[in-house]
């Protein structure tokens, strides 16, 4: 018999999935309102499906395009559709007011500017990465935190800024720099809002519009499926992930291996953004 919800986890080594049994009620989001910003496609859409499968009572879908949101809504029970842009204060505020109290907020929207060396970049296009990834995070936080339920969860999608040397990423200065700044904003949100669980997740190598804009070639890289980050985010919203508050983690981690490192993660700067290694 199929479980009432499924939340697969995956390992970096083989990317295989293990179904979670009904004996794991802590992974259920029954009676919760889950807000997905960027739900019109890619990881955001799959995340909406994952939270719906985990029993969410209400899944609020936000994106800039009505047609793509409606396509997601067709596959999500108890969904509401809200046209909103991460860079537009009014549309985010209107959506927050319409949704009301929420328990989980996932910010999956992001923008990868056109790739070019720093000195050859178009300033407006280069800065668009910061407007969406950094300013957008600020605006979403200002719009939604006032309506957060007690002990609500905010999860953001970010990109690793240290795993790959900069020399391997020519042309991606706007995207990588803005994502580094974004990760730090989330750390401040966690520090300044002790009643909320705030963390960020690197989704792995997933073929999305941003991946294609970055110049990535899927058949030359160790790609992940879109279900990996989507279902990992469901786990991140569970009590099991409480030790990751204020941290950035990766969807490729096996959750049991992560939990085995609770002490290391909680007692230092591991999984935080910034310069490390002072003498």
TrEMBL record:
Pfam families: adh_short. Keywords: Oxidoreductase. InterPro entries: NAD(P)-bd_dom_sf, SDR_fam. SUPFAM superfamilies: NAD(P)-binding Rossmann-fold domains. The keyword Methyltransferase does not apply. The keyword Nucleotide-binding does not apply. Belongs to the short-chain dehydrogenases/reductases (SDR) family. PANTHER family: ALCOHOL DEHYDROGENASE. This is NAD(P)-binding protein. It comes from Apiospora phragmitis.
